[in-house]
## 1
Amino acid sequence: MFGPLIVKPGTSRNNKTGSWRIEVRPKFLRKNCIGCKICLLNCPEACIKGEAKNAYEVDFDFCKGCGICAVMCPKDDIIMVKEESKE
Amino acid sequence: MKQFLEGSQAVAEIVTLCKPAVISAYPITPQTHIVEGLAQIIADGRLNSQFVNVESEHSAASVVLGAVATGVRVYTATSSQGLFYMAEVLFNIAGLRLPVILTCANRAISAPINIWNDQQDSISLRDAGWIQFYAENIQEVVDLHLIAYRVGEDKSMMLPVMVCMDGYTLTHGIEVVDMPNQEQVDKFLPAYAPLYKLDPQEPLTLGPLVDPESYTETRYAIQETHKEALKLIPQITTEFNQAFGRQYNGLIEEYRTKDAERVIVAMGSVCGTIKDTIDELRAKGKKIGLLKIITYRPFPYQEIYEALKNIPMVAVLDRALSLGSFAPLASEIKAVFCGKKKAPKVISSFIVGLGGRDITKDSIKEMLRLLNTKERTLEFIDLKPELLKDKYE
């Protein structure tokens, strides 16, 4: 008998780790963004996408709400908001 | 062909016939002659195999884990501290369902350091998920390696197998061994056809993080596969017997137990001494028998129950301890009869031959003298009370 041992590659795409987020999530204000990519490069989940200024977005299927992007943003253009808030 | 061989040399020869593609091992007494022999055979060009020199047993086990995962046959051997140094990798190998074959030259565990034989090393790793065989003599060691490869690599198993041979008694003892030829081995043991392997063309994941969602199922699957192994091992052994003209049972061996009043349960080379003692006592009319456990993992509960259920008195000989509790083999033999109507009246537990202390016929006779209506727990045979002190001085 075999258990769930050998899995096909790419299964992490199916494992929506965004469900681990508990209290807060990032909100991109899109006011003072200079497109420096610091948020994108520091995201441990690599779930931030974007190229142009004020056009970065987060894939909430995988964002765990760690807040690193908000801390690293040199323009304070990312804030953490309560998970249940409608912001 | 019959040959006069040292146990370690015989193992090196049979492993050569099994043609492992990768061998990795680190020398440790009393296993050294096995890998020394294999290194020589490869250097002589008799075996086309990659011998990976490593700096420790942890690395040796890791090398064979990686190699077998790519779909080739592998081999390693170790002993005592080396086996313990491999321990975390051994659990990984079983958990990853990879058929590594390992020879354990049984040796005592430190401290105090001791290079001689008992079975504490492999017994301590009984929970690792490995199938464990214990050999009585060099012929059996040789034969069990062939059975080990067949069982471990079977597509329904994919489990590692440890062949345990008593250090010195079997590794350095010399006996006449009936060695099969290459043709016979090839017929019985075809090339390893893995069920899955690491291949860049067809990628798969081996050993991912498994969360509480599915960890239990991976362990349950191994547990169930061990139950299936209890059926497969006798089947493959029967096939082996037909191919090589032997008479093994595979799980246990009953020696003169049919009308026996007292039966000794034991594992490994001590069974030879016990058989000789039984023959001597039988000649004097004493009804004594032996139940030899060959397959210790999976533990053959049913076969042991059938073999012992009508025996009035049973002595279990352990060459290892579970310090602070009952002896390992004895507690499992007792568990077989827990809650059963038919059971031996007495199951006494004896500790014999630790750290290479000789088990003589007299040791066996002393054990039998103490095997009476008074059940004994953890009775040490040949203990020297004069070496023990109540206070530090």
Note: The interface with chain B takes residues 1-9, 11 of chain A (CB under 8 Å).
## 2
Amino acid sequence: MAKIVADHEVVEVRYPVNDSFIISFRSPVDIPQILPGNFAEIQIENTTGVFLRRPFSILDVDYDSRIISFFIKIIGKGTKRLGEAQRGDKVSLMYPLGNSFTMPVPEKKVLIVGGGSGIAPFVMLGRNLKKNGNKVTFLIGGKSKKDVLISALFSEFGEVFTTTEDGSAGERGFVTDHSLIKTGSPPFDKIYSCGPEAMMKAVGKIAKQNNIDCEVSLENMMACGFGACLCCVTETIDGNKRVCKEGPVFNINYLKWRI
Amino acid sequence: MADLRVNIGGLEFKNPVTTASGTFGNGEEFDDFFDLNLLGGMFVKGMTLEPREGNDYPRMAETASGMLNAVGLQNKGVDYFIENIYPRIKHFNTHIIPNINGSTVEDYIEVAEKLNEIETIPAIELNISCPNVKAGGMLFGTSCPSAIAVTKAVRDVYHKVLIVKLSPNVTDITEIAKGVEGAGADSVSLINTLLGMAVDAEKRKPLLSTVTGGLSGPAVKPVALRMVWQVYNSVKIPVFGIGGIMNATDAIEFMLAGASAIQVGTANFIDPQVSVKIIDGIMDYLKRHNFDSVTELTGAMKV
């Protein structure tokens, strides 16, 4: 698979919510095929304490205008700096990295569950699933209303439900408290999840109990992002596997999660 | 055009830029990014006699101008390398140099014997400096008698170029360098990572599963330069300089301090194409300073 490492020009930075932003870049060359779940490593220069690149899931791509975008939550110095980028700034991006979510047969009803910046791959995933002929349902969780505003991005691909811990939008509680999946047997053939690990484990547990096929996207700490350093491994039934190369998407049955 | 070729223990490298074991996978991971045939050589991921799973996650912590790792030699074993990995990478027109490790001297011997049989592998790097394994590794490289013993034992069974990778976690690295030179090493490479650690103050926990790990990156460069300089002045065998090389200027500094060739390590993670840029940068430097051969740089620092 062809990969790019090149300086990209910042086209736009906007803040749909206070602590998270969408940043888009123009590539100097044609963008290779990006699959849902692929990620990029972004270099953040001239920032004390930031040495390595930072991995981010790809939000969307426009091949014709060579635009690639990301949904990023500010969690430290690197993400803060990136959120301050100005139109025209040059930033080095490396992609596409990692594997992708698998596509089910068209008849399957799928649920996509996530929270925080974990929702980034859901735009491309939702679009591809809809195109594939699947009935798609989204369930997006957050602490309060502002955290789930971003779920509007998914309405063109399927029905969207939300949960908030303070009850300010959707049902109150965590995603796993939502009536869609909490009781009875959830009416889905496949579940995809990306977000905080505790959330993915809770979702994975429900999937397992109901014999629903489930894929999750992990975000272990990485040094390189393309399989060289062996720092980001996760335990699987085949031994330690690189989240950046064999992942980030894994079927929960392949992981050694105690759920 | 200046001559970039260097000679290490009788083995000619097309240029002095190679990639450090542990930071370059098995080379294949970089094939997506640049033409590996341009490299002087590649030191591939450390291997042991038996397969190893390595240490638990988390294995990495970013630090000021560097990183700590505690990978712990995760690899599928030397037989797997010979049967499965090497056939996939042997077509590259660059020296492929395995980095070998063991818990016991016998382990090292057996791995070296197996690699000695592979005609197209011209050299091995004896790793007596891995700080992230419970047995062997750095234990061999931090005492002079054991460094000599393992080098001698491998020298007896390995008949091609033997490079010994030294640990910086010693009182006097020149004693170890002289010891392994006397035991038959053709070259030494230094430095491996510096033993370090990182703490999460909020959680009151170590950031690595192993508590301590190996520090690499620009943070270690001054220490590495000093050690290369000391070793260059103590032994006659050629030195591979390693430690925080991020660009051509860094590489040239190591050569001026006494290195005959260099290994690019942690920089590969940030810019997988960095080695090619370093080769071009060295070429440019030689031209600007009217050198005919890159070998003229070795030890050329004016003190």
Note: The mean pLDDT of chain B is 97.
